[in-house]
Amino acid sequence: MGSLFRSEEMTLCQLFLQSEAAYACVSELGELGLVQFRDLNPDVNAFQRKFVNEVRRCDEMERKLRYLEKEIRRDGIPMLEIPGECPEAPQPREMIDLEATFEKLENELREVNQNAEALKRNFLELTELKHILRKTQVFFDEHEGGANTTESMTRALISDDPNRHIGHVQLGLRDKQESLEFLPCFVAGVILRERIPAFERMLWRACRGNVFLRQAEIDTPLEDPSSSDQVFKSVFIIFFQGDQLKTRVKKICEGFRATLYPCPEAPADRREMAMGVMTRIEDLNTVLGQTQDHRHRVLVAAAKNIKNWFVKVRKIKAIYHTLNLFNLDVTQKCLIAECWVPALDLETIQLALRRGTERSGSSVPPILNRMETIEDPPTYNRTNKFTSAFQNLIYAYGVATYREVNPAPYTIITFPFLFAVMFGDLGHGALMAAFGFWMCYKEKPLQAKKIDSEIWTIFFGGRYIILLMGLFSMYTGLIYNDIFSKSLNIFGSSWRNNYNESDLLTNKLLQLNPDSKDYLQIPYPFGIDPVWQLAEANKIIFMNAYKMKISIIIGVFHMLFGVCLSLWNHIYFKRRISIYVEFIPQIMFLVLLFFYMVMLMFIKWVKYGPDADFLGSSDPEVIKTSAYCAPSILITFINMMLFKTDPNTRPECDDTMYPGQIGLQKFFVIVALMCVPVMLFGKPYFIMKEQKQRAGHQTIEGTAENGAAGGAAAVAPAHHHDEDITEVFIHQAIHTIEYVLGSISHTASYLRLWALSLAHAQLAEVAWNMLLRKGLMSRDFEGGIFLYVVFAGWAAISVSILVLMEGLSAFLHTLRLHWVEFQSKFYAGEGYLFQPFSFEVILDSAGQGEE
After folding, report:
1. Which of 22, 74, 163, 566 has a beta carbon 3.0–4.6 Å from 826's, enabling a disulfide?
2. Global pTM exceeds 0.85
């Protein structure tokens, strides 16, 4: 857990591996997941690297596996999950066996699919021919029965089957009573139903109305063999005269992708053809069934191992990608790598390298050397499933600079607490805590389901944050004594009512005076007195003052803690100048102004209070400590900053809260203002002074060397890289202005704790009064039904608006308070993340990409 407070100490290492042992060693390091390799061939094209052929082979195997997976999912066959641990990366010689297996499966499946598609195409043609023979038989039966006109044949065809839609188009025949005996030529076929209207119009225009079209819909959908989609088609028959029209009609059918089939004119031939078609359809059904059974067996056998195959191929591919980052020495027998590793895990990494060497059978052990570098190492914080969610909140703002103080361990407490200050409700907090506890309790089953929803992924990833936010909200709800806008009367009340019943019923604006005998002067044991829930007149005034002061106090302490963490950074990085000219002025500025304002609040709470004997008392001390003489903290702080003193309009009260207040406040303001030029000019002055000293030392050393050379050619000494003093001054000016103005704006920003807390309480009260209160006031049997409906609406509003929307709003405001108001005091966030070569990370990202 030490790395949670400050990132792990990292070291740059050089690794020498024998060529025959490199694959096994990298495989062991991938299982370990503690090494980040650097690319030693940045200028080499990806297609010119040593192991590019192996990567291509892996890509080809992965393509074949994706094809198998697509076919398995298409048939709805379940793929078995990997039992226990993931399989290890196979040896390079096993790639040939895997390639042969995948090649055999792909060829067999493609052959089966091609045969099945051909069979389905034949089946479709026979099915369409069957429908043509059935539909056209109706037409020829009517013709043989003496229907001499197209109109009478249409009426007969329609009346024959009322459930079948049969339309006809008689296109411009010169004699509309012309018999079918003068239309000896015809073609029959099948076309998509949606193309019928355009098909009719094209026949009209191209044939000049000298054709006769009849069409009937096929009731059942037909399966397209190419796409396996269900399509609706219609049967048509076209009568015409002459070879010229025949050629034209066939070209139109071809253009509309209509399929033409032979249709005999003789009834006996049609019946014989229909019997033959039915026989062939039955035979095709048998063959199709056998083909589908064979395909299913192949896919079921592949589904048992496809997850393992994916893991193996991806591990092989990741290993060769990593080997492409290495450098080859001149002898081509050794691979050289550079990598970042945690200093504490060097022994573990060396053990993994030894295991890899033993697996490969190599007799030459690998060599791991630590290197000196001026490059900034990556940032690595060890986390678990609980701390990772809070660490990701920090990374969303910026990755910590190497070995910088990590805000995550403090955020674990402060984040849910500040959220709870805005979301303080025992009932709503219990709902949120129950949801978070359910996700934590069902963690493994929910992870196994792999729900494909971005919103669910966010909720589930922050399950421990949600749980803590709910628990802290329950605590602050008890402090506010607020549960669904109502109060818990656990310890009774410290207030007593002295009004009679008639006054209470006629006047809703009555107030209980704390200066009277109504108040027993006994503090409530825990939280707020429940009587305030009944105070319609001044409840808002009381809660407003209470929550506003609490917000300022929490904010000032939170910012002070952030400034104190910057001292930890200065001490660790040995920035002695920054301690004197940054930390000390910053902490003094914040303490002398804003922490002093907080202390005035505590002084006011302790010194002034309601006194039952105030109204009739003649003792001046009793009057001076009463609520009547309590000053306004805001006015006092403004006067302090302006060096101003208001005239005393209450002679019986003291001018100040304690002796010497005015002089001490002036001293505090003057000292705080003097801290500003120290922050502004201190660091640039010391840096400029150090540069001058360094330049003087270099001049003296150069003179001594020149004298010792005895007239030899002088060698210019190496100069230390100095920062431009103008840039230092500008940076420090920006930092100082940001801190001074930010101290004021950040303190005001914490008032969002007060504002959102009041808003949440008022929304909950409105929901209760507008809905549930009316339902509880209803009576009789109808009142029960009304209450049932009203409760459903109230519950829906409570969950959707007060828990989800208000919870999201409070979460975002809490995030801003941590990122801006807290972390800006000590956290630079200018590092880059440690991304080790890890099979677990690679497989997880690949699985998410598939989903």
Report:
1. 566
2. no
List all residues 6 or more positions away from 610 whose beta carbon is below 8 Å from its beta carbon: 514, 515, 519, 521, 626, 627
The alpha-helical segments, DSSP class H, found in 207-305 are: 243-255, 267-303
> Using one digit for the tens of pLDDT, what is the confidence trace for 640-652?
999 988 887 787 7
> How many Å apart are CA 337 and CA 324, to the nearest integer?
10
Q: Where are the alpha helices (DSSP H) in 325-425?
A: 346-360, 387-397, 408-422
Q: What pLDDT was estimated at residue 703?
A: 63
Backbone angles phi, psi at 163, to 5 degrees: -80, -10
pLDDT digits (tens, 9 = 90+) for 11-68: 999 999 988 899 999 999 999 999 999 999 888 888 888 899 999 999 999 999 999 9
Strand pairing category for 233-240 and 211-217: antiparallel
Instruction: Name residues whose C-beta falls within 8 Å of residue 328's C-beta, 6 or more positions apart in sequence.
Output: 50, 334, 335, 336
Residue 65, number of CB atoms within 10 A of its CB: 22
Give the end-to-end CA distance of the chain in Å, rounded to a whole number: 34
DSSP assignment of 753-774 equals HHHHHHHHHHHHHHHIIIIIHH
Question: So where are the chain's domains?
Answer: 113-281, 575-701+724-750
The pLDDT tens digits of the residues spanning 167-186 come to 344 433 334 334 434 445 88
Torsion angle, CA of 292/297/299/300, rounded to 10 degrees?
130
Which H or E run includes 607? Answer: helix 596-607
